[in-house]
Design a protein that fits this description.
Elements lengths: L4 H17 L3 H15 E5 L2 E6 L2 E7 L3 E7 L3 E6 L5 E6 H21 L1
Antiparallel strand pairs: 1-2, 1-6, 2-5, 3-4, 3-6
Length: about 110
């Protein structure tokens, strides 16, 4: 079975980036949604969720604290089952870009009024 998630992620990122580059509100909104989806990796023992576009730098708390990084490897995972473990990860790059997007969006809205 072919995994189409990386292709869909690339299309979504491309559309968000295109409209963001044109400084359209849709670009900011899509980019914010994209970064929010990448902000947390959650493992609750019965469900695992992780999404990264082109790369990530993440602090992971699961059986200790770890710093994980990866580039040029888009992925989207939702796993169901038992014995998946417990943990959470916080995407530092996503947090940085969310801060940048919100401050840029506020500046853009001030310039439009």
């Amino acid at each position: 079975m072919v995994n189409i998630a990386p292709f869909c992620i690339a299309i979504f990122n491309g559309v968000a980036g295109y409209y963001l580059f044109k400084r359209e509100k849709l670009g900011f909104n899509l980019s914010i949604i994209n970064q929010i989806l990448q902000l947390l990796t959650v493992n609750l023992g019965f469900i695992y969720y992780s999404y990264s576009s082109l790369g990530y730098l993440m602090i992971v708390i699961q059986d200790g604290i770890a710093l994980k990084a990866n580039i040029f490897n888009p992925s989207y995972n939702i796993l169901y089952g038992s014995g998946l473990g417990f943990g959470v990860g916080i995407g530092l790059i996503s947090l940085f870009f969310l801060t940048l997007l919100y401050s840029s969006r506020e500046n853009l809205e001030q310039n439009e009024s």
